[in-house]
Each structure stands twice: as C-alpha cells, then as structure tokens.
Design brief:
4 helices
Length: 111
C-alpha cells in the first residue's frame, strides 16, 4: 500500500458531526442553534461544544440575540470556514480518487 502523498485533512472538521455541521452551515447565511441541533441529530451540549471548538479555530461565528424575550443563538461559517470546508472536501475526494486508482491497478495486475 503506497501512501506517498497523503492529502491534508483538516482535523478541526474531520469528525463526522463537525463535518455535518460545517456542511449544513455552508448552505445558509446563518442558522439558528435549534436548526443546527435538529439537522445534526445531537444534543444542545454537543452543538455548543462543537460550535465553540470551530469558533476557536476561526471557522464558525456565533451571534447571540433575542427574539422577543427569548434568547437565541445563530451560527454561521466564516470565510475561513468556507475555505477550510472546500479544502477538506477536496482532500477527501483525493483520497477516494487515489484509492480507486490503486484498486483498478491492483485489479489489472490480478488479471
């Protein structure tokens, strides 16, 4: 197995739930906390923890406010977050492409 050049996966967003959150946020200008929680199928605590971690690396912006008297939190991707997501997805695709090419080559050798 040859792993001469391994694409750079972004460890800040590699975990499936972080990647899901980033992908969801990429589809909108910003999303209310509850919408992110429901889409990702995780607890409030998980959304909060992940949002904080992604905010610390500059990928997510957290905005707090209120609707009427109810406090609300909105999440959005920063431009750095959008760039990081695109690079991460490209790295994943490179892994898939390399694996498929290696599989095809191994299949040709077996024939």
């Amino acid at each position: 197995m040859n792993h001469a050049v391994s694409p750079a996966l972004d460890q800040a967003i590699h975990h499936p739930t972080r990647l899901t959150m980033m992908a969801f946020l990429a589809g909108c200008a910003e999303a209310e906390f509850a919408a992110v929680r429901e889409y990702c199928h995780v607890s409030d605590a998980s959304v909060s923890r992940i949002a904080t971690a992604l905010e610390e690396v500059g990928y997510v912006q957290v905005r707090k406010g209120a609707v009427g008297r109810r406090p609300r939190t909105w999440l959005s991707l920063t431009s750095a977050g959008r760039t990081a997501l695109k690079r991460h997805l490209a790295a994943l695709q490179a892994i898939v492409d390399a694996a498929q090419a290696a599989g095809a080559e191994a299949s040709d050798h077996d024939s």
